[in-house]
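My current task is to audit a protein record that another person submitted. What it holds is a sequence and that sequence's fold in token form. Thanks in advance; the entry in question is below.
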Amino acid sequence: MAKQFLTQVNNDIKYGRLELRLATEQLRLSFDANNRLSATVASTGSTTFALTGTSPTFSFSQSVSVGSAIPLGRFDVSGASSSTNLVSFDVNRVISVINTNTTTNNAQGIIFRSFATNGTTIQTGVKLLSQNTARTATTMTSDFVILTNNANTLSEKMRVLSNGRVSIGTPTPNASAILDITSTTLGFLPPRMTTAQRDAIGSPTAGLMVYNITTAKLNVYTTVWEQVTSV
């Protein structure tokens, strides 16, 4: 049996600090047999939840789902899209995070956080950000940035620039490099394999490189596999 705790006054429904204004039943609230609260929006209309104040928030103590009846996680967003166009905006397959400020080099993104061992201090683990490196009235240029937390120090670890260049260990890759890996304590480790495994690579392209553990040498493919030797 559905629970009823909402009070209707004229065409408004109020419960605590939440107020929902209805117009020709654009929004309907109901409980199912498992006491889950559902919000149904008419297909011809839309409903906006607006909060005001210094730090407005929605707080939920249970799992929340958008687009599905039963959440598969603490926050579940479901949609169905057959589009194979990755450039077009499709509301059925994306979560939109918008920064309304127009300052250049600001950012928007997702933060993954967790409690410290004391159970009360919340620490940031990883940040996934889109940094707006340039903008005009109608265009945007953005980098994708990954930051991780090492012993309570949050810093940038990887960046994919708007032009496709990738940097690891530096926010400013060399202009001539498609991939710039920067470190003063670690090296670059190519794939390691035997000669038989190397020869099993299908249709190798010129410039492909592996470390051959059979001969303990770097191998580079030109039109055949060649061995890099010291002069």
